Amino acid sequence: MTIDFYFIPGSAPCRSIMLLCKILGIELNLKYTDLEAGEHLKPEFLKINYQHCIPTIVDHGFNLWESRAILVYLIDKYAKNDLLYPKDPQKRARVNQQLYFDMGTLYQRFANYYYPVFFENQAALDPAAYQKMEEAVGFLNTSLEGRLYVAGDSLTIADLAMVATISTYDGFKFDFSKYPNVVQWYEMCKKMPGYEVNQQGVDEFVEKFGALLPPK
């Protein structure tokens, strides 16, 4: 099984999908999509995804975007069991809760702090936005109290989404010393199969955008 995967390596949402595919043994036909060159706005891509965003997959004629929707779809279609996305309603609800927390809070607050400098020519980073990042990591630290993983005691797709985000925080030298539960969880996640694909993407993202940061 080979799935067309439109992506950029530095994107945390893209990396979460690549991690899942490593675990499930899904082969991806990697289609690097150069956003700066406008490849996502070309007619052939717009036919696939009218919202012209990545990640996007095409699975034997079925087009899908939004990373967390893709994670769920790949589990539903290709996973041999429900360990990564439990069918039990309460366990699944907890995974969903953490997926939405990552999307709406953890990842979003990273974007709120850094993206105005990276993409909108803002001259300085906003200290108040950094405090919001710290608050988000604090929420994650609290949620991990008494748990090995973000939705319980076994790895789920919520961990894949969140480690892609947290590793991006780490790439930009976020201080995790006040968040021991996050540190313990993060170190465990680094041992998952195929984690190197995530780290390579983080390194590329930092190399590309780190130079744009104002001096401290």
From TrEMBL:
Gene3D superfamilies linked to this entry: 1.20.1050.10, Glutaredoxin
SUPFAM superfamilies assigned: GST C-terminal domain-like (SSF47616), Thioredoxin-like (SSF52833)
Subunit record text: Homodimer.
Domain GST N-terminal, residue spans: 1-82
UniProt KW keywords: Transferase
Any one GO BP annotation for this protein: glutathione metabolic process
Top-level EC class as recorded in UniProt: transferase
EC code(s) of this entry: 2.5.1.18
Residue ranges annotated for the GST C-terminal domain, each copy included: 88-216
Protein name: glutathione transferase
Family: Belongs to the GST superfamily. Theta family.
UniProt keyword Transferase present: yes
A single MF term (Gene Ontology): glutathione transferase activity
Keyword field contains Membrane: no
Parts of the chain that traverse the membrane: none
Superkingdom, taxonomy of origin: Eukaryota
PANTHER family in UniProt: GLUTATHIONE S TRANSFERASE D10, ISOFORM A-RELATED
